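[09:14] KT: can someone run the structure on this one? pasting the chain below
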Amino acid sequence: MKTLDTTTLTAKVKNLKDINSIFELFESIGYQEYLFDKSYIRNKNEFGFNKDILSNIRNIYSIFHIEKQLYAFFIEANNISRSFLKSISKNLIDSYIRVLIISTDDWKNYYFTLPQYEKKEGESKLKLSTLRLDTTQIYHTDLEIIANLAIEPGLNFRDIWRNHWQYAFSKERVNEEFYKDFQQVFFNLRNYVDKQCNDIKISHEFTQQTLNRIMFLYFIAKKGWLNSDPRFITHFYQEYKRERNRKNTPPDSFYDDWLSILFFEVFNKSYHNMGIAKYIPDDLKNQMVSFPYLNGGLFKKEDFDRRNITISDSKFDEIFSFLDKYNFTIKEDLPLEVEVAVDPQMLGYLYESFANVAEEIYERNDLGIFYTSTVEVDFMVKCSLVEYFLNHLSNHKVPPYIIYRLIFDDDKSEAIEYFSNHNLWDKISFLLSDIKVVDPACGSGAFLLGYLKMLVELTRITDNSLGYSRSDFDLKKEIIGKNLFGVDVMKWALHCAELRLWLSMIVEEDLPLERRKEPLLPNFNLRLRVGDSLVQKIGNINFNLEDLNISREIRRKLDGLRLEEDKFYRNDPSAKFKTPEVVQQEENRIFCEILDSEVIKIDQEIQKLNIELRSKDQLTIFGETDKAEDRKEKVIRKLEDLKKQRNNIIDVARELKTKGKQFIIWEIDFVDVFQEDKKGFDVVIGNPPYVRQENIAPPSKPKGEVTLEEKKKYKEELIKSVQIKYPFLSRIDQKCDYYIYFYLKGLSLLNPEGTFCFITSNSWLDVGYGRVLQEFLAKYVPIKAIYDNQAKRSFAHASVN
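[09:31] RB: done, structure tokens below
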């Protein structure tokens, strides 16, 4: 690789302002012998662009070619969009095979695009990798990508293509570098915090959430919502240091007196009490009053926020020095459209791959966390959506290939024409609005984001066919509120999922200032629940709410709860519930009513049996047959069982009233999914934790605190929870890996027409403990497909395939 002077390269990039400066940049990184005459402007009509593309192009320049195998073009356009980049890339790559395209529409922002064909879903599809370069805001990673394009004399085109162009535009390389830098910053801060609170778990959670919050501010700053300053957080810290040097604010007080104001006042409350920001200058206060009211879980004070932890200025110097190296983009990558920058998906990667690396708290292998790539997510979402539509359009006799065209094809014109000719758009619209999707181990929300993308795309097509019009923000808010659900044992994983869902809502939305004063972030905690998906248990009781005979009165209350929760999600001013805690209190109250009514029914049954028992005693006294004695023994056993059941329910109700609900009750937590007209989810999808049987333990408890007895007891509870749903599964192998229980639980959450789609280890196909799952699927589940991936590892760091 050519050695470059960073100062010179920075100057060249900052000086990009015309075609001459573009040629000078490539000359400085080793391409001088290949460059064309910079005055030569190509005829744009010779490239075969369609009329819309042609009208958007001002000029095209050929910058160079290498051995007629590698070509570079510069395009000056009126307006650059993703669709424009995709169209010109397709034309150029089809003609020239390997191309690098640089484009601009203002001579300030530049797009360096490397298009390539990749095998996907059995065919070659165009993938774009793009660096967006703003010459007024140059980042370390921008310079690094351009530096990696630099070449030495004598290289052949294959070396340049593989080791320079493809390497430079590798998103994985940027992610790995960010990950390594983050790891160092994280542990330095966590160890610093731990010296103050002497609790490694608290220190870990505080560090994770603080860095998450700061990174979130980087993302929304890029949106322009923080005083239209894409580097607001950096400038905010610099302003603090200026005030500190003037002795207007104490040293080492940035977290307490500045950042905490942003976190817990500005973004967490609709009314900004700037009087408490006594050290922040008035001009900054005036800016902060206009910042959006975010609400939601990310900026809610947690227990670890109340520990009076201080962070020194030197630690913040380290944090901002790290984050300021990277270009942040608010838009998450699609499988075939990649921006070489740090996007919100990185937050998911940090959670899934890093957040639990501390062995003294959690062990990665114990939690089974592996980040699922967008390729697998996209494929699984599309497969399950196809089955959902096939299941619900069978009466309309829609050919399966039409559904596949609608879901999988880039060109959906044939499917659109079919549904128009058969007047099916109203039905499609209903199915899209009615679908209920859950990931029972959702982590940072990869599958929820995947489903959101597809549902938005399909709803846009449907709305267009029906003449409807909705903003991106309102459409995504409705889909997240009505269609997507998730559960995870880790609270801060759900905060990460919330964050990514919220960023996806605002990515292309330019909300007016007055609307930003509303609580923008919906109350996702009604759709994303903290808890153990597998064990529905209170105290010492595993139970199944479906077994309880719920009265019509309580069902009406559950209907009312569903309506009020929907209002709360949407921040409706008329909502009965104003906080998540009040919602949970109402859920607890209704659940207690269910338990109380069950006690009354048991008391009535006990009363009947006592009457019967007295009659049997009388028969025995008068010398009746031995049958009366046998019946008496059965009644006594039944009475003992009922009394035990009654005491258990009373204990449950008492624990619920004193401690609140610390668990998932699917039928209560997702009341709108389990009503009589739906009776379960339409799609269960996900990547459940991979945990070997010997490491299975209560998931919310740190490894070091779990005893062998607790492991054994939890495994027994897992088996009981399966047998409650499937009593005919009398034998379940104790050697089952954790994901087997997720299969069985996930299938039990489906409605009769539901679709199930998991990515897991393939070991259940050929090991002994997999027999119970194989037999269960073969007897009770209509299997559509099993894809056994032997050609390529989906998870590079996993020890299984």
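[09:33] KT: thanks! The longest strand covers residues 109-120.
[09:34] RB: yep, looked fine to me
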